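User: Fold this; tokens only.

Assistant: Input:
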Amino acid sequence: MGLNTTIADNKGWNLAVSIKDVNKWYGTHQALKDVSLDVESGRRVVVCGPSGSGKSTLIRCINGLEEFQKGDIVVDGVPLRPDMRGVERIRENAGMVFQQFNLFPHLTVLENCTLAPVLVKKVSKIAARETAMKFLEKVRIPEQANKFPSQLSGGQQQRVAIARALCLMPKIMLFDEPTSALDPEMVNEVLDTMIELAGEGMTMVCVTHEMGFARKVADSIIFMDAGAIAFSGTPDEFFNGNDNARVKDFIGKINHA
């Protein structure tokens, strides 16, 4: 069995994500090994680890973007089985922000943000536009609403991607290395947006190597190694006095990068 990890300090809170003994294979390669993890509503969890440790695979399994062969995942009370039943309901409640923005290049910023609410949630176009503008203001780029993605910087595109995810009014936000494709000077503008979301109590699971963000925002840090959870604890436990050799090595490499 894998490490059973509960991210919570208040037993009365609702469970946002529950993962139990999840296993994932790509052919003969086992990418996830008996991963178990509970995330309480309102908590911010950072998932880190070396390349190939299973971080992105885990977060993509939560949103049904990757199939898994064994175990159970429940998101906001909706079970997702290995046969992918429940995936559409889960995607309505769990917003996803990717490394590469994934904006539709032929649509304006506003159209990118209103497409899913109109098609998936059957929201009126007027209401969808109002909601989109509200979230574009939240990520501080309402003036870009009528531009196309190619006319924006990488940081602006990623903030549009965050606004687009928020337009579906998700209860949980999943971030898969959201700053890894950005130039260094654009990283902070995206992290600042994420920090603001965290401050408003949004449940967040974020795969990232941005350790400054982890220190400032995370309630808990998960360290993955070779497809398994090798460490779970508070930021203080992670950064200070940690006797896990793999964690020490990882922190040392990050600090000297």
